[in-house]
Amino acid sequence: MSDSADPAADIDVDQWCAELEAKRAEKDQFFAEHPQSPIPPGERDAFDGLEYFEPDPAYRVLATVTVEDEPGVVQMETTSGREMRYLRVATLEFELVREEDELADGTFELAAYQLESPNDDPYFVPFRDKTTGQQSYRGGRYMELAADRDLETGDEIVLDFNLAYTPFCAYSETFDCPLPPEENWLEVTVPAGERFE
Q1: Which one of 84, 101, 161, 168 has the largest count of C-beta atoms within 10 Å of its C-beta?
Q2: Gene3D superfamilies under this entry (predicted)?
Q3: How far is 170 from 192, CA to CA, in rounded Å?
Q4: Residue ranges of the domains in the chain?
Q5: What φ, ψ does residue 145 adopt, rounded to 5°?
Q6: Cβ pair 143, 45 in contact under 8 A
Q7: Cα within 13 Å of Cα(158), Cβ side
Q8: What are phi and psi of 102, to 5 degrees?
Q9: 185 has which bridge partners?
Q10: Separation in Å, CA 70 to CA 66, 90, 93, 181
């Protein structure tokens, strides 16, 4: 949680970039070497790392939380045509302010979900944006938010699109991944996080 109106002001940008690059290098190593990598074994020798947008603190934003009093069930279609049941537990409202593209500025919302069975999993935030199917995976991207306690209405939490990642089903059909519901389709370009072309 944070009380600052500008989460970018809370950080040492150089240190933040270094930590982000370290996480990316660690993930590349996992994809290249780990037995549970989504890269098929026969393709791992040729794997030379994931594609990423450049780190940009403008896409590390502060979101205001509205918790659902009675979380509704959302049936998310998956890449294999099945459906998965999630609970819509909160709405995250945030602003994007980018000096180079004033037309893209504005206030946006994303829903956060959890699986229906009780658990302590992070909040799941799948989304599409205007990079989807062009610079990022056609099935959308994911973010996960871990809070140090249950979220309450009025809380503020950092939403870092630089951590947005591509689901494993992009690399192998053995994985079945939920697709972002329409309420999480952003009508804006978010050039942050993982690329997939």
Answers
A1: 161
A2: 6.10.250.1680
A3: 18
A4: 7-195
A5: -120, 120
A6: no
A7: 19
A8: -65, -25
A9: 128
A10: 12, 10, 19, 19
Closest CA to 147 of 193, 192, 93, 90: 90
| Phi-psi sector, 74: left (phi>0), alpha (psi -120 to 50), beta | beta
- Amino acid found at 118: P
Q: Are 169 and 139 in contact (CB under 8 A)?
A: yes
Query: What pLDDT was estimated at residue 43?
Result: 93
173: tokens are: 């059909």
- Is 25 in a helix, a strand, or coil? helix
Three-state DSSP state, 127: strand
- Over the stretch 99-155, which tens digit does the pLDDT of each residue have? 565 555 689 999 999 998 767 789 999 999 999 999 999 999 999 998 888 889 999
What would the mean pLDDT of 181-189 be, rounded to a whole number? 95
- Under a CB-based contact definition with an 8 Å cutoff, are residues 138 and 116 in contact? no
